[in-house]
Queue: 4 jobs
Job 1
Amino acid sequence: MAILSGCSSELPPEVKRARADFEVGSNHPIQFPHISGSFGEYRSGGRFHHGLDYKTFNRNGIPILAVEDMTAARLYTSDIGYGNGLVLASPDGKHFTYGHMHDFLGQHPQLEYLRMALYLMHPSNRASVNLPAYFSFKKGQTIGRSGESGSGAPHLHFEVGSGGFYRNPLEDPDRRIKDFSAPTLLNLHTRIRSFPAESIHRQYTRDGHTIDVYALKSRKPLSSADFRIGTYDTMAALNRNGVHGIRLYFLGRMGLEPYVRSMPEKIKEDPIYKMELDGIATSELRTADRYYDPEKTSIGNEYVYYLYDTLRRNRPELQSGLYLVEVLDSSGNSGRLLFEVGESSQADLKSDEPERKQHAPNTEEEDPLLKESDVSFRNLQPYAGASFHYSGQGMSLTVQIPGGSQRGEAKARILEPGWIRAMPPAGDGLAFSGEEVRAFVFDARDLVVSGYMYISGQIEKKYPDEELYLWNPVTGKWDWVGKPYRETETLAYYNLRLKRGGIFAIIRDVGRPVIFPALAWQRPEEDLVSHTPAVSKKEGDDSAAGPVIILREYDIYDQESWVDRDTTQVFLDGVPLPWEWAGDRSLLRIRVPVELMQEKGSYLTIQVSDLAGNPAQPFFDFVQP
């Protein structure tokens, strides 16, 4: 089948006019509305991101504005979560949350004095307080300045809520953004396979927005399966964000090319599945796993959404014919994927094994890494909780599904390593301990958990650098499960969180951490070169300034496990220097006093190891005053 040609790079005149007439909303909490995190995005732990993240382009100190006439109701100060945050209430019952601020120096600087007092009273820097109705703001007034407190790089987190319900801030026409870029569609997934998509056509709506049409690179009809769509949306910025909505349509027996030639702006058929993230109840903030596949979703890269209701255990086979997946953003753009389901294409979704005994029709696929097993599944009822234990090869581990966390019916089982058809390779930086790999399988089907599962127990360590890993079929790599809470020379004790099942194995970590310079986040009072208070050099001399400080920041990354921060050492020309780790990032921050440096510059040396004891390559940086 030939690839259909899309529109030329030159926009049609009517599209140019529509875009020229478009006006960006004037009621954003920041002057330049560029989005780095969308409403409803997947977050770790099965959480929804229930606000918007506004980019501040790695700068702090940008004025943050009140979007309505409102009054400060609650103040946060913390080194996690919202960081320095304010909740403001409007007369109509809505509340607006501003997070990760640098300070509250705005219309009411008294709020900043209160924050500083809370910090002094709570050295752990985790406090919040309800406020009396003393601090009122008019629409457009400054409430404070942007920062990077709490979690993440510099940005502003902004929420709109009312009555226990969070709304998408972009629903307000006064907060619309200039976005004519359609979501990008990457893959059509099944439980164990991925089918890459490619763009084949582009058209435009009457108001100038974009509809991008995709087909699978392999045009073969697929068998009926529980499909998922892998996608992201830039929202006219450089980040990869989640999308606003997903719809799946059955178009009947018509061909793909004829449908594209006559594709309407709005699809007339009723969707057989629909998901739109217009709002999220507070009681549902940890139910994102109902809509996202946590095993395949890679935050900031590819968001993988189910194309079926995960709470429905027995789903019908898809009819043969043409299907369309429509992916919507919050601005009016869409990406559409067309694919066919055939009657006799089961081999497309299965491994090259001899034909098996036919069972009752279902949409479930067998994992090509596992042999056909007669080990029975245990049926799991919603919210009941369950535990599965494996003991063998020096391992004694239990997988626990907490009661109240499982949504919908599911089934699961433990498989011995003999049921693994082909052990995935160790990969770069990892090594198996011997010819016989110590492993087991937690084989779970249709399991949707709000929050986490847990794995606990102990393993015997034959080598000091052995760790517990979980195979990731999407990335084709082994994921480090986590750090033991206790270790001896021969045993490691675990109690860790899990989001998925699969093949677990004990593998040696032989890779080194990597160190490279990071962009130094700029601050209002403390830029790349800053001053810190110091005692006067002469008694009674108040004119002496504090020492000049040069700020250096370094990203330190270990692909195989994690950096052991306790092994960190920093030297300036061989003299030890103090350092600090950013609490929520793998970022090492060093303040270099200029008075300690040589006139023409000095060498900064960093030494660090990972949790398996592997040291990073020697790292040197030349620092000039």
Job 2
Amino acid sequence: MRTTALLAGAIAASLAASAHAQNAPDRNAQSQGAPPAATGRTEESARITGTAGERAEVLKAPEFARLAATGGMFEIQSGRLALDRTQRQELRDFARQMVNDHTRSLDQLRGMMQRDAALHGVQMPQDLDPQRQRWMTQLHAASGKDFDDPYIQSQREALLIEVDMFRNYAEAGDNAQLKQWAGRMLPVLRQQLEKIQSIRPT
């Protein structure tokens, strides 16, 4: 998967972040003391969320289904790891809810892919994309209190991407079933994002 170049210079980065915050109401301000956003975002995530002054690309049904599945897989895998490693009850509750919500959503997605002839050729991904795999590698390397902040940070970034992607597809997607499903999932994802943004890092 191709990766984008990092934004050049602190001034350009600051301007882009400011413009993006003004144009994306779902990207709520993170609580005081929050870790900085992850860098090195992929070209794929840039297309999904857009950049300052540009409209995000609306994905075609096969790619949306694949990326939605990858996002769900990451939430389940990272949630299970969090249940094993974090001692913070609020993070354990969040992780358990993520595993439950995304297991259910993946089952729904698989069902649609089996029923909809337009999606029959789409293969469910077996592996995570490079960005989410980097997050999982980082999480596997952490334990105890050192686990909590990387988990919070990766969840915030992943859910920002997912909220943008699902909102865009719910508004202008090219497959009726997937479009309806994206619309049903969007409030769930927004609630998850709001919750993880309310949890303070250590």
Job 3
Amino acid sequence: DGRYRDKFLYPRVQVKILNEQIYLVGIKDGADPVLSITKDFELLNFGNITFNILDVELEENIDQFKHVDQLLRYRFVSPWIALSKNTQNRYKFLKSKDRIAFLNRLLGQNIVFLAREMDIDLNDKVYTKLKLNSLFPKPVYENNWGSFSGEFQTNFVLPNYIGLGNGITRGYGAIHGLYNPQDFKFDEDMLKSDVVDDKPKNTFDEDDTLLCVKVKNVPKPRRKSNSVSNEGKSKVKKVLSEEYEIEEKSVKKKKIKPKKKFQPEKKISKTPVDNNFNTLDYHKKQHDI
């Protein structure tokens, strides 16, 4: 209900509708609430659509959010919104090689932000290697965002179905690990062909598409200020830097009372008023020629 929005920047409970199935993801503080409501699940009402719950499957993972010395593969099962309005303006002027490096850096910042929100002690470096279907972002019109589809590798263990990037509360940026895909049901034949003999490998060699993000160089999230300046300046809620924002700028404008327009002084006629001006005889008198 939003009561923890100022405390947590990353949503602890996430709802995904993927392949006509509903996924409730509870992370850290959100794990117990999700487990508790699944006990008496009969239906889910989303306002414009209601789901009858026929079956519930629970999956608990404890050993998550940690560094490993190998690259693990993940696939985006919903579009990854990497570009905000600001970063999209910068991205469109980059060359192809610079674009993939730019996106790899944003992905690394996504992971660093997530780890910090989970109070995880990070090693010095986070490696990312994107393999996207296209370097041309698909627009998300309501916020002027740019999204991508594809997969990536990183040296960080991430839970299935959590979101990365912008629009997490809308279901964007959901991921699934390809190194352990037995429960993945989106395109089983394709995934089986993808992950045969696909064991995590040490691939920290020189690679143009493998980018290293140094944790110390990633700014920490900025908390939303509760104070409003007298001048009515805009308030900005940023998660990492200008390059990575989960929330767009929220501008609060100060209400300004309109100035009273100058009105010329009305001259009041001192001519005595005929008390019979609204009578028939008066009008006849005025129109006599």
Job 4
Amino acid sequence: MTIFYDPEYEKVSELVSKYMIYDEEKKEFIIPKDAPKEVHEAYKRKKEIWGKYQEY
């Protein structure tokens, strides 16, 4: 298992974690629609960064 450290990932994760809730039906964490726009953008960026590191 490879561990990565990306300061941007840490920053967006910290912002997003306050808003994430678990959706029982979908069996995944989601961001509520009423969350601020910057949280939704940060969540997208978090997924992009995570995907980049999955390629290794």
